[in-house]
Amino acid sequence: MSIFSTLRISSSGLSANRLWLDTISSNIANANTTRTAEGGPYRRRDIVMTPQGRGSFSQLLGSAGSTSAGQGVKVAAILKDSSAPRLTYNPEHPDADANGYVAMPNVNVVTEMVNMIAATRAYEANVTVMNAAKSMAMKSLEI
Questions:
Q1: Which residues contact residue 81 at a Cβ distance below 8 angstroms, ignoring those fewer than 6 apart?
Q2: Average pLDDT score over residue span 57-77
Q3: For the purposes of burial, counting CB atoms within 10 Å of the CB of 19, is it exposed (0-12), middle (13-18) or buried (19 or more)?
Q4: With helix as H, strand as E and coil as C, how does the chain read?
Q5: For 35-60, what is each residue's pLDDT tens digit?
Q6: Which of 71, 82, 89, 92 is deepest in the core (most CB within 10 A)?
Q7: Greater model confidence, 116 or 63
Q8: Where in this chain does the entry annotate a coiled-coil region (predicted)?
Q9: What's residue 3's pLDDT?
């Protein structure tokens, strides 16, 4: 594996994790949005990452001992969560129904914070890989 493929793989992870963090921040920012352009409350969004390049994840695992390496990740889709919105009793709210219930977004801030920690750790791991690859390249130039 060359230094450039290492950097390319790590940079794909950085890009995917940045988009994951952007999606999480959008979810948190809209945790109380009861009215959207599509109608109804905001729907939580989540990203789907897939291996880039050589087939499925199980094929990559099957070739783990060989000399072929993965080519990073890519974001395949940003999906809306289909779970039902939370109903909150608030008859004074402008979006309340006839019974006084307001459909609130299906965003759980605690879950989003846990996802944010995971995305941040994954981003940091990719930065560490890039720094290690850069350090190895610099050491090889000193030889």
A1: 43, 44, 45, 46, 106
A2: 70
A3: middle
A4: CCHHHHHHHHHHHHHHHHHHHHHHHHHHHCCCCCCCCCCCCCCCEEEEEEECCCCCHHHHHHCCCCCCCCCCEEEEEEEECCCCCEEEECCCCCCCCCCCEEEECCCCHHHHHHHHHHHHHHHHHHHHHHHHHHHHHHHHHHC
A5: 999 889 999 999 999 998 765 556 65
A6: 71
A7: 116
A8: none
A9: 82
Distances (CA, A) of 92 to 31, 95, 128: 19, 9, 51
Nearest-CA neighbor of 47 among 64, 24, 13? 24
Q: pLDDT band for position 113 (50/70/90)? A: very high
Whole-number Å distance between alpha carbons of 3 and 10: 11
Quick one: tokens of 104?
Answer: 């609130």
Whose tokens are 């995971």? That residue is 118
* Structure token pair of residue 93: 């709210």
Say how far apart CA 54 and CA 57 lie, in whole Å: 9
